[in-house]
Design brief:
- The protein has 3 domains: 71 residues, no CATH class; 59 residues, no CATH class; 126 residues, no CATH class.
- It has 14 helices and 6 strands.
- The strands form 3 sheets. A two-stranded antiparallel sheet has the order 1-2. A two-stranded antiparallel ribbon has the order 3-4. Strands 5-6 form a two-stranded antiparallel ribbon.
- The longest helix is centred in the last third of the chain and has 28 residues.
- 12% of the residues are buried.
Length: 337
């Protein structure tokens, strides 16, 4: 449904013939006030469309309104598009989603795994964004907001669970790595190490991302953006002190249950306990979700100091990780030492 039935059209060399045939006496550059029914279906003039399902009002070109309307016989906004899609699928395929039909699922799978589809997708993204969409700031911002929203909702409903940290998944991952590379950790495979070095040198000019000046500046800026004032810093010290206290209570248990391997690079480091505690290789306790992140996101100190959030790594890796979380550190450093 269209809210504004009247539309002002600018006469151009592209539409003068159309409106002249309609019986209007018009000159290029002139503006005509017309009923919307008289306007060309492919006109780019903006109209106010009303969603039939939720009554939401949307400003969009008349041409896009007509394309939307022709898909189902009514206009629906983006928020309600899933309803129209299900309705169309039921009419065309007998199911609300095509993936409920084995034959259509197989056809779609075959097409999306084809070289033609991949090339077409890459070309479309480059034409639209100048690069792959996953490389754009827009994608990074949207995916980050989306993931944070999902995690927040799950935590509020007490249903959040990080599948990557589940013991059974960790076991499956190690078994698969051993079958494929002969080692449970891919980053200890020589060819992968060489590839990491090559990639880091090409992208960062250094064997490790932390050696790149731009990344060092970004890390400093990200801390500055958090806008932690002196008063807040005092609160952070109290927060961190509580975590250290709770962590100290279970420190012996952590080391007793430890298998001796560095959590981040899978090197056997139990023998390094004989080194001086200030040595870079000395095994130290690390919080996978950092104290700094926990403080900024108001996480309970008991969550940060929980044994499931504690691991053991070399002192030098612990220093490099700093305020980063486990996944951020692994991604940024590519686990290469």
């Amino acid at each position: 449904m269209i809210k504004n039935n009247e539309c002002v059209v600018l006469i151009t060399s592209g539409n003068i013939k159309y409106y002249s045939k309609k019986g209007y006496s018009c000159i290029i550059g002139e503006k005509l006030s017309l009923d919307i029914s008289e306007v060309s279906k492919m006109s780019h003039n903006l109209i106010i469309a009303i969603c039939k399902l939720c009554n939401n009002e949307v400003n969009l070109p008349y041409s896009k309104y007509n394309i939307n309307y022709n898909r189902g016989g009514f206009y629906s906004c983006k928020k309600c598009s899933s309803y129209k899609r299900k309705k169309t699928n039921i009419i065309k395929y007998g199911v609300d989603t095509i993936f409920k039909r084995d034959d259509l699922r197989e056809i779609s799978k075959k097409w999306m795994s084809s070289i033609e589809f991949r090339e077409k997708s890459i070309n479309t993204q480059k034409e639209k964004y100048g690069c792959l969409y996953t490389e754009t700031e827009d994608f990074r911002d949207n995916i980050s907001k989306s993931i944070k929203k999902i995690i927040k909702e799950k935590k509020e409903n007490n249903t959040y669970e990080c599948y990557l940290s589940l013991p059974e998944n960790d076991k499956l991952k190690k078994e698969a790595m051993f079958v494929k590379y002969g080692n449970e950790c891919s980053f200890l495979v020589p060819e992968i190490k060489e590839k990491i070095i090559k990639t880091n040198l090409e992208r960062f000019g250094h064997i490790s991302p932390f050696g790149n000046n731009e990344i060092q500046v970004k890390i400093k800026n990200s801390i500055n953006r958090s806008k932690v004032d002196l008063g807040t810093l005092d609160l952070f010290k109290v927060y961190r002190r509580k975590i250290r206290y709770h962590t100290k209570l279970i420190r012996n248990k952590v080391f007793e249950e430890w298998d001796g391997y560095d959590y981040y690079d899978n090197e056997y480091i139990k023998d390094y306990l004989n080194l001086h505690r200030t040595d870079n290789k000395y095994p130290s306790i690390d919080h996978k979700i950092s104290c700094f992140y926990g403080f900024l996101n108001n996480l309970p100190t008991t969550d940060i100091s929980d044994i499931s959030n504690i691991c053991i790594t070399k002192r030098i890796l612990n220093c490099q990780k700093g305020y980063l979380n486990e996944n951020q550190f692994i991604e940024l450093n590519n686990m290469f030492l």
